[in-house]
Amino acid sequence: MKVLELIDAMGERLGTTSTSEIADVLGVTVTTLNNWKNLNKKLNPKQVASALVKSQKAAIEKAQIETIKPLVELYRIDKCKSSREAKWEVFDGGKEATLYVQGLKGTLVKSHGIYIFYDSRGEALYVGKARDQSLWREMNMAFNRNREVQTIKLVPHPMRNQAFQPGYEKLRQPKDTQLELYDLAYYFSAYRVTDGMIDDLESLMVRAFANNLLNVRMETFAHTKI
After folding, report:
1. Domain locations along the chain
2. Is residue 91 over pLDDT 90?
3. What is the rounded distance in angstroms from the CA atom of residue 66 to the CA atom of residue 72?
4. What is the DSSP letter of 156?
5. Would residue 40 be called left, alpha or beta, if left means φ above 0 and alpha means ψ between -120 and 50 degrees?
6. I need a surface site. Which of 24, 30, 173, 222 has the fewest CB within 10 A?
């Protein structure tokens, strides 16, 4: 097989004519590939085998680099009402926000992967995945979702406009109060993850920290029978 035949076939298969993309897949430098093209010699079996091995190695290295990419870590939540006042959002990324915050929201809107909510001490509270929808949408949905998993005793205080009465005049008893994730979460982290790894990575994190998280569902690994 001649080099140009291999390069043309690779380009057709990959749907590209880019020398750099083809060189990437073959695991060789652009300079090497250009030298091959200029010489247009026949590749012997050893050269073909070498190219295949380099290609496999390049694919593995690329997968390792692309699988998990941190977007933001331990970012302080500054919850605000959504545009229609229907729910809480983890922060306001609107036109009045700084370029940094707008950029963060834009990145979350465009990305899929894994997110983590933390309490005020930085302890993980909840792990979630965003595979079919964006990280931004999934995070805010989880932020507002009802869960009967966190109940503590709190004293209910009046919200309407009325005069304050000290405890010795009107004692208010602590009562069981269910808190939502938006009451508990102070920070979040978000990671862009290759689609094929999102489910398994979420499963690993939930199962590894099963007694620390508010997650109710115990996720399973793909291709694993129970």
Report:
1. 3-66, 77-208
2. yes
3. 16
4. -
5. left
6. 173
